[in-house]
Amino acid sequence: MGGRAVDEEKDPAFLSGRSRVEEKDYSGAVECFERALRNNPQSAAAHLELGLLYYRNLSDYAAAIYHFDRFNRLRPQSSKRDVINQFIDVCKRDLAADVPLGSVPLLMQRELDRLTQTNKLLVLEVERLRLQ
Fold first, then answer.
1. Is the pLDDT of residue 94 over 50?
2. Tens-place pLDDT, residues 41-52
3. What is the 3-state secondary structure (H, E, C) of the chain?
4. Average pLDDT, the chain
């Protein structure tokens, strides 16, 4: 298993991806690691790098979860599994934080509509009293 991981990391596309990360060319790095996956669809190392890129640099938590999960499936006995699972949990929380709660905005909109209507009525009442 260790030899296979080393072989994955010798792929020219993988090495180019690592170089692009160092240069902070994250979109270029993604392209390189995806090319490494086309060269070897079983490359856990490329999935790990993509997961880290999507999480740390691109804030694409759904993509990060996918690649972290693929890493775990390809390397179920990895010593990194616990850390990867922590990344997955953080990504899930960050992803959920981006999703608005459906019922809260509707309730807030109804309350805003009610308050707007009350305000209009009060403005009319003030104007009526002023005319008296």
1. yes
2. 999 999 999 999
3. CHHHHHHHHHCHHHHHHHHHHHCCCHHHHHHHHHHHHHHCCCCHHHHHHHHHHHHHHCCCHHHHHHHHHHHHHHCCCCCCHHHHHHHHHHHHHHHHHCCCCCHHHHHHHHHHHHHHHHHHHHHHHHHHHHHC
4. 90
Q: Can you state the angle between helices 26-39 and 12-22, rounded to 10 degrees?
A: 170
Is residue 6 pLDDT above 70, yes or no? no
CB 22 within 8 A of CB 49: no
Residues 6+ apart with CB under 8 A from 74: 42, 43, 44, 47
Q: The pTM is what? A: 0.72
